[in-house]
Amino acid sequence: MAATPADSEKWCLGSVIWYGGFNTKTNRENHFGFLASESKAELFFHKSDIIGSQLPEEETLVLFHEGVSKNGKPAAFAVHLLEAADSADRLADYLSASRQGEIDFNRWPYRDRVIQCFTQAWGKDVVSRLAASGIPPCTLLALFHQRMHYAGLFDAIAASRDFNGLIAERICPTLMPRSFIDAHITQFAGWIKSEAVQSSVHAVPQVALIKTLLTHISLSAVLYLAFLNCLPADTLIDHRGSEIAQFVKRSFSDDRLAVEPFVRDAYQHAFASRADYFAHPVIKAYALPYLIKLKMFRKDFSFVDDIESSPLMSADPEYFILGKLLPLIGRNDDMVIQSVILHEIWQGLLSGRITVDHPAIFRLFPQCENLRSRYWHIKLSCEAFHWQPKNQDGPKAKVFLCRSKKCLEPQVLPDLSKPYGDFSIYDWLAHYGMQYMVADEPSKRDLPIKLAAWFNRIRELFARLCCRSCGLLMVPNMKYSRVEATVWDPESKGFVRRPFQAAYRLTVFKCASHGCEQFDISHYINHCIGYKCSEIIDARDLTEKCDEGRYICTSCGSCCTHHQEKYGNVNNGEAEDVKYERIYSGSPYYIP
After folding, report:
1. Nearest-angstrom CA–CA distance, 98 and 298
2. How many Å apart are CA 431 and CA 413, to the nearest integer?
3. Which of 153, 239, 271, 465 could cross-link 214 (Cys pair, CB 3.0–4.6 Å)?
4. Is 33 in a helix, a strand, or coil?
5. Chain centroid to CA 176: how far?
């Protein structure tokens, strides 16, 4: 024997590093090799210690007893190749002798080959043969965890045990399928509540386990734990917040998420009313936006107060804009509505309450593929309008243009069949009775198209709208017009008439900082009206005007509608994307 067994003949698992090969010094084949144990130790083994006639190759999985060689170095004897016919029985003996938790099966490099060995040897009877071999259920479940058909294997291994019975056998709930936990939800909730109490005392192990479980259990189980206050609200939100949010969102529509019946039972036990449910700390943050939109949909204008009283909602541009805009509709003409809403939005920008690149803006003013592909370096909202090209030979085609290009997916047509929670600005305005001047044919004169275009111009021009002296955002010059509008008054819970200083198209701006040398000096900033030009007309950079008093564009030479003969020099030879980058790359919303 090349090796002497240790006092304990415990089976060890390892893999062959190398064996055999031709030895040039002895001029003959080697009859020995080395293998690596699970502890990463390298062990010598001799051909005479291999059980059976088959010889190993590199990385062959082997079972062996550990000992020492004649020269006192670590060695292996009774080496069994797992490819041998009796290797499954040997493997079962090895797993039976393993102490609980000794092997981390999730990271065990031999896991797949061990399972393959068992299934090749025993086929469909693998689970019953393993269970009869004396391997603890916790070891078997950890071995087969997350494998295909695990739920069926679990049922065979766990037999008729319930949740508490498996816990008594020290089987971790992470090894239990979601369906099993759902079937024993009461026992599971009681156990996890006790673990939560322990985690506040003993900390790390229980906390880590609960976090792992929260990613493992079903949404129904999460809701059950939430309704019965088995875990802190912030813990549940941190780990399953997105799914809870989706559940709450869909509860406001006809397309509700399917949950287990025990969720309904927990709801009835925990809440005396729907108001109690919406006040629950796990539900409240997700429900408030949809409760507000429900009021919007029902035209209950108390939603204005709900928005103003919530710091979170009043800072969300979608709710900020809708809260200012919807009460104006039907009680003011379009020009008054435009003046007031632009004024309110600008005040929101100046105060920092909202930003024009907030994702919520694009829920109200969606993007279209036309602008997304043409202006990939800046997010712009669809501003499509209806255009009918002349066609003498047949009916006029219905075409939409977005920045002079055909828009194949215009986002500006209302669709009131969708859930109100997904309404865009076009859907809300249609729901409140504001129609386009010509039905289904939006034009540049219609308010929502103007608003979408205005937001795009703000994103593009933003760098120009800051004072060149102090760097602060300038304000529109309000001296040109003043309007009176009918608005909702939260205090009196009714509509009142109030005066507003209109933002007058937002083309004349001035610095409002009293300490700035540019204070109260007005500057005209707009786009050139020349065909496909859109060069920036900034009074701070231009001096030449036509006899109508309009600034002359240095790019195309146009100035006003009275001098249209000057139009025509569109891009000075520049490609559209090159020109766009030159004009707008100074915007903070531009991505190079």
Report:
1. 65
2. 12
3. 239
4. strand
5. 28
465 and 340 in a common domain? yes
Q: How far apart are the first and last CA of the chain?
A: 73
Q: Let me know the angle formed at the C-alpha of 274 by 269 and 278, rounded to the nearest 5 degrees.
A: 100
Best CA proximity match to 80, nearest among 142, 25, 14: 14
Output Rg (C-alpha) for the chain, integer angstroms. 37
The domain boundary, picked from 84, 115, 144, lies at 84
Tell me which residue of 354, 250, 280, 309 sits closest to 491, measured CA to CA: 309
The span from the CA of 514 to the CA of 519, in Å, is: 6
CA atoms within 13 A on the CB side of 198: 13
Does residue 441 belong to any structural domain of this protein?
Answer: yes
| Pick from 476, 467, 535, 540: nearest CA to 508 | 476
Q: What pLDDT does 304 receive?
A: 94
Q: What is the DSSP string of 344-409?
A: HHHHHHHHTS--TT-HHHHHHS---HHHHHHTTTS------EEE----TTSPPP-EEEETTEE-SS
298-318 pLDDT, tens digit per residue, is: 999 999 999 999 999 999 999
Sites in the chain below the pLDDT cut of 50? 1-3, 6-7, 200-203, 480, 503-504, 566-567
What is the CATH classification number for the domain harbouring 29?
Answer: 2.40.50.140
Q: How much is the pLDDT for 12?
A: 86
Q: Kindly report the backbone phi and psi dihedral angles of residue 526, in degrees, each rounded to the nearest multiple of 5, phi listed first.
A: -160, -175
346 and 292 in one domain? no
Q: How far apart are CA 219 and CA 202, in angstroms?
A: 27
Domain stops at, among 51, 84, 117 = 84
Number of domains in the chain: 4
Buried b (16+ CB within 10 A) or exposed e, 49-59: bbbeeeebeee
Domain that holds residue 421: 311-488
> In 3-state terms, what secondary structure has residue 56?
coil
Residue 497 zone, left/alpha/beta (φ > 0; ψ -120 to 50; rest): beta
Same-domain status, 325 and 276 = no
d(CA 121, CA 282): 50
- Closest listed residue to residue 31, CA positions, set 43, 15, 14, 18: 18
Distance CA 219, CA 243 (A): 7
204-216 helix and 233-251 helix, angle to the nearest 10 degrees? 10
- Name the DSSP class of 25: T
CB contact set of 232 (below 8 Å; sequence gap of 6+)? 196
Contact (Cβ atoms closer than 8 angstroms) between residue 420 and residue 255: no
Give the span between the Cα atoms of 131 and 125, in whole angstroms: 10
Helix, coil or strand: residue 488: strand
Run of H or E including 3: strand 3-5
